[in-house]
Amino acid sequence: MESMAIADRLRAEFPDEFLDTVTHQGQTAVIIRPGRIVAILRWLRDTDDLRLNHLRSLCGVDNVRRKDPRLSRFEVVYNLYSIPLRHEIRIRAEVGDKEPAIDSVVGLWSGANWLERETYDLMGISFNGHPDLRRVLLPEDWKGHPLRKEYPLKGKEEWTGITELLEKIKELDQHGFDPAGHAHGQNQPDEEEP
Amino acid sequence: MTPPLKQTLEIPVADGEAERYSLRMGPQHPATHGVLRVDLELDGETIIECKPQVGYLHRGFEKLAENRTYSQALILTDRLDYIAAMANNVGYCLAVEKLLAISVPLRAQYIRTLVCEMSRLCSHLLWLATHALDIGAMTVFLYCFREREILLDLFEELCGARLTFSYPRIGGVRQDVTSYFIDELQRFLDIFPSRIAEYETLIDTNRIWLKRTVGVGVVSGDQALALGLTGACLRGSGVDYDLRKHQPYDAYDQVEFEVPLGSDGDIYARYRCRMEEMHQSVHIIQQCIDQLPPGPIIGLDAPDLVMPNKVPARIEAGSSTYGTGLIRLIRDRDLYLSGDIYVATEVPKGELGFYFISDGNNRPYRMHIRSPSFIHIGALATIAKGEMLADLIANIGSLDVVLGESDR
Amino acid sequence: MTILLMLVQIIVLFVLVMLHVAYATYFERKIIGHMQVRLGPMQVGWHGLLQPIADGIKSFFKEDIIPEQADRPTFMAAPIICLVAMMTSLAVLPFAKGWVLADINIGLLFIFAMSSLASYGVVLAGWASNSKFSFLGGLRSMAQVISYEIAMGLSLVGVMLMSGSLNLTQIVEAQGNSILGMYLLPQCIGFFVFFISMLAETNRVPFDLPEAETELVSGYCTEYSGMRYAIFFMAEYIGMMVMAAIGTVCFLGGWNGPFAVPFFPPLWFLLKIYLFMFIFIWIRATLPRYRYDQLMDLGWKLLIPLALVNIVVTACLKAMIG
Amino acid sequence: MQIQYKPKRGLLATIFQAEILQGMALTLKRLFSKPITRQYPEEKPQIRTGFRGQHALVRDPKTGKSKCVGCMRCAMVCPSRCIRIRSHKDKEPGSRRVIDDYQIESLRCVYCGYCEEVCPVNAIVLTEFYEYGSYDRRSLYFTMEQLLGNWDRFAAQLDRPVEEYVNPFWRPRGLPEQTLPAPKRLPVSPEWSGEQQVVGRKWRQHHGPEQS
Lengths: 194, 408, 322, 212
What we know:
The structure holds four protein chains of four kinds.
Chain A: H1 3-13, E1 18-24, E2 27-32, H2 37-46, E3 54-62, E4 74-81, E5 88-95, E6 101-103, H3 112-123, E7 126-128, H4 160-174
Parallel strand pairs in A: 2-5, 6-7
Antiparallel strand pairs in A: 1-2, 3-4, 4-5
Chain C: H1 2-35, H2 51-61, H3 72-89, H4 107-128, H5 132-163, H6 168-174, H7 188-201, H8 213-216, H9 226-251, H10 267-286, H11 292-321
Chain D: H1 11-15, H2 18-31, E1 55-57, H3 73-77, E2 83-89, E3 97-105, H4 114-118, E4 124-126, E5 141-142, H5 144-156, H6 190-193, H7 201-207
């Protein structure tokens, strides 16, 4: 089925949730409201002539610097593909600015578990009903969500884990561990990066 | 974060309930294929709970790419799956080409298909090597490296690097193939099937290998789909999903090959799938060599390597490094298209997808990488549960994960 | 005077065995290297011939690390228990007629006792290291040794029945009348069981579970370094040699050969041991590793019944023939 | 295509360990084959032309200075931003830009070769020299003198005259000459310049000899 046709079916089935469609290079994205995301994805997965049974990717997008003013602050993008029927569609669920959250789809695809954790970790969108919503790529005590546009490319200070580690090394050094010896290899103090 | 200095081993005490023994495998462990950490709860040697932890190699590629031009971000993909960097490069270029509507000449498409399959061989050889080593057959490891070395030498001949190729270019490839390269490759293809037979002599019907792999790490087809497994892990469970057939890219629709499918979904099925894929790759490379058409290797509308956002008049009038395409684009006043695209390719590990959002800039507004290894590691918890410690190692090897790709 | 002579003999044996251990490691690396189409050690001396000596010196001068939370006395004693037990079993081995330190009546049992003692070293090392991987390695070793000791003991009962003795010299002499001058053919089932148990007893591939590198890092010796680690290593190789010697004595006819060697009677004995060692190495280069439960299955469900069948068959035959 | 498993082994093969013996026969056979490893520091690998190794600034044989004209294209294209160029232009009209310093932080470099490819005058090159590990960072922070020195060292061990050296990234193989800026149109073999391309056997059969 053509992506546009799928989008039309979706509009007919969920008229209240449907907001818009966008097509670029033959790929169609449907922009929807986030409220009934699980129902929509379940419908897409289980309807007989759609059977979009493969969740290709799930990611968050920060739209704050997009030129289009109509877009909401955050979006969660689901790329779906039907392995038996070989068609695809992209679902873009709008997520608000303050405390962005959307329902988790782990119940539909258990593989979404880590994808949602990653989105939470890097974009700060939380997922309601997720079984284990923790950071996955960054340390547990990391501050901020790096893929948000306001997050700087280069931070001012080091991650606390590293500073703690350095302190620990200093503490160990006091127990007779010679810092100028083999612990720091060949690096003499005067050879450090200028 | 750092564990307390004073730490004693809790010897489990029998108290009627299951005795739990927690074991933290990795990130420095010989069999975790990089810096994967797996927190285990064991009952004897049976895994009650398995929690994989990744992120030790996180380099923020998605953030970095937002601050680089499309051609600069290409080199980041080398470092995703550093075992099959060429496949990542090609996947990235395809996505950018589709996003910005850039065409690729036929010869370049064939060359890309060829190097992709070489890359698949490289990756599968390394997978077999480490997988066999994990299960204890260490000679296979070195036999695989013997062949992989030939491939790496060929890559060096082609593009001057052995691991981080940066060989494809948005709109084509960087260098044409030489007759020397083709001859060497042909020689390799002639000997390689006999070398595969050699690996199979060592392990394929070996009773210990069979005991370690048959019926271990079983994933049913539906379960594999739900877990998001792709590549040989999905096909081993009997789901026919290969992007080279489903959404053919480059010259894959011009060559004949078959997609090996398993049915049992265990480690042995995945192993057989990948071994068959190696045979198919040889077949594809042979066809690419035979059908290689003449022509340009980079398209006329390929962007300049520097990818300027604003084009100074000087370049507009004169020539760019490559092609005359840039001049045409400037006349159109539409340097880079805006929109979003998801393009996936079948890399050796599975489905590598790039989701791009372009804002009409020379830099991607957002690049999301769907990395198969990340999802496969996520699935490890489900697969390894209830099996034994030694099976966990076999499972990690069989899922074929690369931490560079998983952590990005 | 006899004590002095004894001492000299012990020292000579010790030195010779140590030299053998050193070069066993060298040949293992070299043979596996060539089987894997690489070169093996090449740097120290001609074709790396001095490598074992360099390794010895290196491990002797390496920093000796004892983990802070380890059980110190046990941690230090464990490798020594291993080595001493293995070395002691050398005493009863007949290298040729009359070339034996202690020709005791229960030689075979003595060797069993000693090799079981050696496994205490491994188990204690795993426990005393206070490390999780070591602990698992120790546990695996314990289970493995217990199960395979039985299979191995039973596999040799056939030999005892046929020769009617536990004294190693007498076992060798009894084989003289057999086919080819060895018990290999009449005791082929026993030999098969013995060979597999031998691999398991010495923790060699495909049964190297206690130190399974890709699973348990280095198993029971994860926390060991320097000389202590080297002692474990030596004990392992002496163990291999002792097992090879038992195999030679019980199944391959000991020092008997096609013809007698005039000045160096143990030649055949040594050649047979070298053959065993080569097969050890060869198997290591070829086979993958069993899983823990599969190893137990193999031991209890295949080897022990087979060994029992062998005993029954041997006993019946012996009763019928004479 | 359904994958095919080998047939299950029979009773005899199980008892006599047939598949294990086959494997052992293979390893025994390989024991006598020629090792493929190389004793690296003594025996150097053969480095192919165009290997992306140590950086160098080409010394112009006529002037004895760098060829760089300070167009900044390399610094612009560098993905890891490890190239720093300081240059100035004299006030007089028609004077050329003078390069004060050209620095490459080789520890940051990813060896993609973009810089040598975009350079319009072939001033920078990644040489085939690959052994330059060092114990301190400073010596890997190449200045202009070091980069020129790198080139001298590389040129000294070339087996042909420096003037004839062409790096495959200066003049990418298979690109038509007219698309390149003038200094990059170096004389190369017809296969290199793309006039004579490797064409597949089947393609030639299908399209006849006149097209290939």
